User: What shape does this take?
Amino acid sequence: YPKYDRDYIQHEEIGSGFYGKVYRCEAKLEGTDCAIKKILLTKSEEVQRVFNEAKMLSLVRHPNVVGYYQAWIEDYRKPNNSKTRKSCSSSYGPRQKMMYIHMELCKGGSLASKLAKEKELRTDMAWSYSRQILEALQCIQRKNIIHRDLNPKNIFIDDSGTVKIGDFGLAMRKDEDVSSNKNLSPVGAALYRAPEMRKGVCITNKVDMFALGLILFELFCPRGRSEKVIQMLNGSESPCEICEEYKVDETAKPLILKLLRTDPLKRPSAADLLQDLDTLEVTRKNTQETEIQQR
Ligand code: ATP
Ligand code: MG
Ligand code: MG
Assistant: This one.
């Protein structure tokens, strides 16, 4: 009996992407809900490349990264729906290989769908989301991993509202592949690609920080949340003017501008930006206290 049918009950499809489909499943033994990503392997694909996603996920264990349980590959035969089938054996398609990734289920869907549903995101929510994404990125960067596909569709929310970075399909170790040209070709959602990716130079984890800059813009600027504006902002020589035009939150603006710097070396790391957030927090608390004392 194949493991998937033996150990899980498949429920509805909860998402699909370029590489695979994701289903809500019930783990029979534990009796709990989980998410399973199914990736059909094509002949040309090396198992190693597909396992990369599971490997990267397993390396970063963090409350703000989608939890990983296990991954495996098994034979898969697509059931034939043809009514003219003659025998039992012809009711299945050819034998193929399918990879399964058992993950934690994020019932709240993606940040993209959340932003599409909510016209205005409360500022305190935007700060909370930013901090959570940064905590995850700090952990990812400590492990020398570059996500390379950070965008609102790959950030999920669980049922208690916790934000989790997912889809490590394009993630890579910084210390690996320096000799290969793997990190030279532009990858990930085109809208969120850092300028250096277009130049075909060796990229660093600062590409994730650039993508974060655009995500923060969306979090703190309800008016500017459109593909057209993001496209304009990405590659703009004067992001400051765009932030002004679309009335980005004044406190968040300097952080966004730092992240969108063209020179990756001038962009802050996740740890740097978390320090900025802490400083802002202290300033905010002090202002509140003085206000109370003055009353
Ligand atoms: P892409 O085309 O972005 O590379 P992909 O094929 O690599 O996509 P994912 O981004 O991992 O697939 O997942 C596709 C969609 O499935 C997500 O956008 C999300 O809506 C949903 N999804 C994925 N993982 C989970 C999860 N753990 N919990 C809930 N939903 C999930
Ligand atoms: Mg995805
Ligand atoms: Mg992917």
